[in-house]
Amino acid sequence: MTGPRLVLKVDNQENITGEWILIMHYGMLALRRGLKMDAGFLCDSIQSLFQVGFRKGGVDILGRRTQLEVLLSVLLLAALLALGRGLCLSEACVTVASQMVEAMDRSADPCQDFYQFACGGWIRKNPLPDGRSRWSTFNSIWEQNQALLKHLLENGTFNGSSEAERKTQSYYLSCLNTQKIEELGAQPLMDLITKIGGWNMTGPWEKENFMEVLKVVSGPYRAQPFFSVGVSADPKNSNSNVIQVDQSGLFLPSRDYYLNKTANEKVLVAYLDYMVELGMLLGGERSSTQLQMQQILDFETALANITVPQDQRRDEEKIYHKVTIAELQLLAPAVDWLDYLSSSLSPLDLNDTEPVVLYAREYLQQVSDLINKTDRSLLNNYMMWTLVQKSVASLDQRFENAQDKLLESLYGTKKSCTPRWQTCIGNTDDTLGFALGALFVKATFDKHSKEIAEEMINEIRSAFKEALDRLSWMDDQTRRAAKDKADAIYDMIGFPEFILDPKELDDVYDGVNDSFFQNMLNFYNFSARVMADQLRKTPNKDQWSMTPPTVNAYYMPTKNGIVFPAGILQAPFYAHDHPKALNFGGIGVVMGHELTHAFDDQGREYDKEGNLRPWWQNSSVEAFRKRTECMVDQYSGYTINGEHINGKQTLGENIADNGGLKAAYHAYRTWVQRNGEEKTLPAVNLTNDQLFFLGFAQVWCSVRTPESAHEGLVTDPHSPPRYRVIGTLANSPDFSRHFHCPAGTPMNTGKRCEQKTLLPAKDVSVSVCVCLLV
């Protein structure tokens, strides 16, 4: 192994390297499996080892093993006796210790660069896989989940317990049927274009009626030219659903790609080439297609110019505007809104007094003006282009090849080597994810995991509430309301219960046939009907936005709920036989992160019932805003490849990262006070408190291309993984104390947010930027 060797002191008499303990123990595990001994046997003394008769049926079992194996067993048992009970040497502990040591770069100084210290080995051993623009522990777990789902869906004896599960298998197999997809070629999409009225790009254009085309492409086929329409809980009345309209219409990930042309010239050229190639694959002539696609790109650039940047949309109280359809008509007259919304939400009966919530009032006014002054043929071309974009994923290899070239410029990925089955699992999860999730949950998830997760959430919630008492800047009335909100947070773990009820699950999905393209269209149609069905219903608190196999978690402000799908409740985030320090540093921090979202710069605007209203006293609001400025400045000072993080865009997630770490660590210390210290891991050579922080950091080990890193900086509300670790730990007095980082080192600057801390630093002599939690 590279780097300095770790030495474990044994009774101050002899030194045994941690690596050697791992090697011996792995050898012994192999021997134990061969001899079929139980783990308890390995803890017997050396004396008892020689007293036990290693014979079965008169056959000398040890005689079948090599002398090296016997020597390993004796050496290991001697080491176990010498080390006493200080180390956890269960198979799970040894395995995770080995993985953690392998991921580390022990030549790095943890007080200079903890991310390199925690992840340097992982980064060195994990070059980007072919066809990937990024790779992380999240991707690794998702691939494991995908492999399991592949096994379930391709099992020759598959017999789903519900019709929905059988439809899921049929849908997946239609995606795998590349022979049929290749035979059909572009014809399914060309037929759809003709059905809608044609596309000037590829043939006769029959429909000049702007409204008719808009209703078709954005209604049953769910494209979103100009703006998006949805149905969800009203932020100011969370017990009722309401129509919601927002800005939309850009194909590239961010307005920045269109407007910063010098920096993104390569991407813009590749995007235009992609547009032209698709147009030609659908029957267009090169010169005409080139001209018209350039016009579409120019129109998208005009849309980008009026699109409001995400960092200017963080105050949800300010961007919320509730109007009637009649008032919306006056604001944006280019669209017949009653006709459009009635079509999108058919068969509901709407009238001019129907309420609509707008999140981009000025944008809608400006996009209406843009529509009115744009030629109708260009509007039609643009609307049909949004439909084409949405449909090409279900077409033949030529379309995939065209997309690969664009992705290489956009994300730095080379030609995709992703197996078709992985693509199809991902697509099936996107479309029939809850039926797929039912299969996943029944194969992997147990109630014990759910019970432990619920217990951890309650421990972290308690730590969070205790921390509120130490906020000197928060007034008592706001503090009491904040505690009430924390108590009211509704946690959903693993999966929504309805997916295990075959009848309820069957009601969710439509029929499936052997045409992948048609199955995609059926799903879009079904989604449109579900949206319409929701409007007159009370919001369902148990309705999830993520499917059970997803490796992620989220907070729902209008439900004041946190969701942890089954997909994330596994190592390295959680394992029942891992040390508590790792579980609290992994899934515990995730839980604390989502809980803290209820009190970040956006979540704090919602009360305990999920309603958007000003429930903080003005003095606390002002104090909070002043203190968040330090975090904006801190993260804006970090760079990736010379490009700065947007501290405003990432503020909410940075608050959640900092608060989540604090809550999880304090919950862990409370657990230790109740249960006593755990045994430490071998070879890692860290205390359990240090292990907590290492476990947290190694969750974020990742690699990505420069292009992907740039895309993340302009679109992602999260900071890059490196600074989710460094930024959070640099703000943690607990981290600095346990790793003995002197003031003035990069991981304990002693200067960040001086005199502007969100909290008084406890037991530390320097000021740090800590959000909401002590």
UniProtKB/TrEMBL annotation:
Q: Which UniProt keywords apply?
A: Cytoplasmic vesicle, Disulfide bond, Glycoprotein, Golgi apparatus, Hydrolase, Membrane, Metal-binding, Metalloprotease, Protease, Transmembrane, Transmembrane helix, Zinc
GO terms, biological process: protein processing
The cofactors named for this UniProt entry are: Zn(2+)
| Gene Ontology terms for molecular function | metal ion binding; metalloendopeptidase activity
Q: Where is the Peptidase M13 C-terminal domain?
A: 552-754
Principal location = membrane
Q: Which GO terms describe its cellular component?
A: Golgi membrane; plasma membrane; transport vesicle membrane
Q: Which InterPro entries match?
A: MetalloPept_cat_dom_sf, Peptidase_M13, Peptidase_M13_C, Peptidase_M13_dom_2, Peptidase_M13_N
* UniProt KW Membrane keyword: yes
Tell me where in or outside the cell this protein is found: Cytoplasmic vesicle, Secretory vesicle membrane; Golgi apparatus membrane
What PROSITE patterns does its record include?
Answer: NEPRILYSIN
What is catalysed by this protein?
Hydrolysis of the 21-Trp-|-Val-22 bond in big endothelin to form endothelin 1
One Pfam family from the record: Peptidase_M13
What name does the UniProt record give this protein? endothelin-converting enzyme 1
